[in-house]
Structures are given as structure tokens and as C-alpha cells.
Amino acid sequence: MRELAILECTECKRRNYTTTKNRRTHSNRIEHKKYCRWCDKRTVHKETR
To answer: 7: which of 22, 23, 33, 45 fits an S-S bond (Cβ 3.0–4.6 Å)?
Structure first.
């Protein structure tokens, strides 16, 4: 039941990371603070559809 989720940087809008999530327990979009190599800093990354 795990689904692929693509994470996008909120500042430069590049898709940097992929992860999986359990759709039953996390029905909303995920947000993680991760390193963006184009921005050269840690930024919030949100799940795209």
C-alpha cells in the first residue's frame, strides 16, 4: 500500500527527492525540510502530484 511521492523545493521549484508514503496513515501531502543543491541550503520540500 505504499505510494511513490516526489518532493519539490518550495524556493526553486526543482524536484529533488523521491520517497514512499503509506496512503492509509498519511492522506495529506508530506512536507520535509531537506537540502537543495541548487539553492545551496536547507529548504522546505513539498510533495507534488
So the answer is: 45
The pTM of the full predicted model, rounded to 2 decimals, is 0.84
The contacts of residue 18 (CB under 8 Å, 6+ apart) are 4, 5, 6, 7
Instruction: Tell me the per-residue pLDDT of 20-44, one tens digit each, with 9 for 90 and over.
Output: 999 899 889 999 999 999 999 999 9
The whole domain housing 9 covers 2-48
Compute CA distances 39 → 29, 46, 49, whole Å. 22, 15, 22
The alpha carbon dihedral of 38, 45, 34, 3 has a sign of negative
